[in-house]
Amino acid sequence: MAIWLNKDSKVIVQGMTGATGMKHTKLMLGDGTNVVGGVNPRKAGQTVDFDGTEVPVFGTVKEAIEKTGANVSVIFVPEKFTKDAVVEAIDAEIPLAVVITEGIAVHDTAAFWAYAGKKGNKTRIIGPNCPGIITPGQSNVGIIPGDITKPGRIGLVSKSGTLTYQMMYELRDIGFSTAVGIGGDPIIGTTHIDALAAFEADPETDLIVMIGEIGGDAEERAAAFIKENVTKPVVGYVAGFTAPEGKTMGHAGAIVSGSSGTAQAKKEALEAAGVKVGKTPTETAKLARAILAG
């Protein structure tokens, strides 16, 4: 089983013909992802050869869906064009849009997030500024290395791309049902809570690992949700215990103001909801391993 992405997912790549899009399309195909097309209005009608796999380029997302039955789009479009690309995906009613691009203006993200809601939330947005989503052995959409883990029983949701990779590697012998990088911008589409609910409903996810970071109150809200709605064991890690107050650390959303948003406050909220929280990623992996062995 998996959440949101499986071997039957048909993926298109908005921005496939750019340097980053080309690189990661090749890697996604190598991981077995069913990439059925790219989107670039200036190159519509062409095909791109990826080591013998010919991938057609369409002028619009709507055309790509009509011709291929695509149900996932991954977006590798420069930040100044990303809002238009996401709006196009929403208008085409693609079920899942994964926005990899970083550096998008917050008001652009707010605009396309609100637009998705106005259109009835028919498109789930993951990101922006995220590594994407992988269901190991089935499909990989984004920039997550496909060779660092295997299919298994753990569900992972993380604000941090790098910590996503580290956790997948640390627990590679057990493996993952799905790993989702939701991004660390102040406004994102899919949240910790969305992923927690999906993993709770997935019969083959036995344990959930949740990685947060300083800034905002997403982890505190997730803790409240876990307390009321999640029956599966959850293990957590919060990045940023040593971050100085008032200084943005890495992600645009990772800034502490007063006592709000500190790693300690998030750790305490999670522990109050029954979540075991590690002080380091490695300790977090050990906690997960102990629960599954127990």
What labels would you give this structure?
seven-stranded mixed β-sheet, alpha/beta, Rossmann fold
Write a concise synopsis of the structure shown.
This protein is α/β, with parallel strands linked by helices and 294 residues long.
Q: Helical content, roughly?
A: 25-40%
**Structure classification:** alpha/beta
Report the C-alpha radius of gyration, rounded. Answer: 19 Å
Give the name of the CATH superfamily of the largest domain.
Succinyl-CoA synthetase domains
Number of strands: 14
Q: What is the string of helix and strand elements?
A: EHEEEHEHEHEEEEHEHEHEHEH
Determine the mean pLDDT. 93
CATH class of the largest domain: Alpha Beta
| Helical stretch tally | 9
Largest sheet: 7 strands, mixed
Could you tell me the CATH topology label of the largest domain. Rossmann fold
Uncertain residue segments:
none
Structural shape: globular
**The number of domains:** 2
Lateral strand order in the biggest sheet:
3-4-2-1-5-6-7
Distance from N terminus to C terminus (CA atoms, Å) equals 23 Å
Strand content: 15-25%
In the CATH hierarchy, what is the architecture of the largest domain at level 2?
A: 3-Layer(aba) Sandwich
